[in-house]
Amino acid sequence: MLRKKLKEILDKKPTGNVVAAVLVPIIESSDPKLVMIIRSKNLKRSAGQIAFPGGMIEDNEEPVDTALREAREELGICDATVLGYLKPKEVREYRIKLCPVVGIIKNDKFKPDNIEVSRVLVDSFKNVLKSRRVVDWGPCFECCGEIVWGASSRVLDELYLRIVKRYGSIDSFFEA
Hints:
By secondary structure, the chain is an alpha+beta fold. Helices cover about 30% and strands about 35% of the residues. The mean pLDDT is about 90.
């Protein structure tokens, strides 16, 4: 049911001119889980921030290829089923436009890359969406007690707004 509902609200193909892509991984279960990472503090960009696995597009990759490659490299995710796309978002401090790719994964057995990932966050997808708050700098969410802001929060906010527009509320979306 989750797959069907998400497919209804997601774009069928990526749009816009992007130079990076992220995977928005959701673990399929009776209580679906959202997976995010805390980026290592020694990275050049977005060090220590809450993010989705992702990175820069290489060679002639499509955004989906980049999102899946980065999820495999950063978390060892090899079984993602892509459901669709959200509108491009900008990492404003670096002027990097990224493509959010939403996918379902089957398990939570991760092999985080210690160089890029300091911590893996796995939280109830419903609870993360229901934690939405709009503050001075825009929407923010909470995942495993960590505040999600910036491009990651704008990705979540678009997902949140699409769900509410189609289903009326987050609770309605998660009802069977």
